[in-house]
Amino acid sequence: MILLVAAGLAGGYFWTGRPEPVRAPEIVRSAPVAATPAASVPRAGPGSEQGPAPGAGGAKVVVDVGGKVRRPGVLTLPGGSRVADALRAAGGAEPGADLTGINRARVLMDGEQVLVGLPGVPVVGSGPGGGAGAGGLGAPLSLNAATVEQLDTLPGVGPVLARHIVDHRAEQGGFRSVAELREVNGIGERRFADLEPLVRP
Questions:
Q1: What's residue 8's pLDDT?
Q2: How far apart are the C-alpha atoms of 175 and 143, rounded to whole Å?
Q3: What's the rounded Cα separation, in Å, for the pair 154 and 162?
Q4: Within 13 Å of residue 77, how many CA atoms lie on the same side as its CB?
């Protein structure tokens, strides 16, 4: 009897102490984090919104429009304006005025003169220094088309005398002959003799 009880206790002890199979824990997979689209992030950079419009910097050009236009005179126009803009501001060309030698698409330079329909006025160059120069080997400099800067390149002519020439040209409606240079304040016989072979009406 004692042996049976002992055997039962031993069997129960053995049963409770036997190893049990252990399952590996399940792997929990987290949901992927959605990346924020780059397009949804506002980006501010130079020129991304409102940029300055061309010619909006407040620059101005002052030009003298003369010849066969309805309202000749000195005009102040926005920087970047073209010859066509100057003609429009001067009321347009008079009926019958010859615009063949005028490049209306050319950008204006500050201090230049635009003459319409006057005889002997050549096509003006498309940029600073355009046209015949005093020291060049081409045709003499046109008194009716040259800018103050171009006249300043003539020997013995500084910026003040160049401005006198342009003012005289505007008052008289252009030069009809080189001899009219003698009427400009500051040009004497000696200076006229130096300039005569270098210029034309």
A1: 62
A2: 7
A3: 9
A4: 25
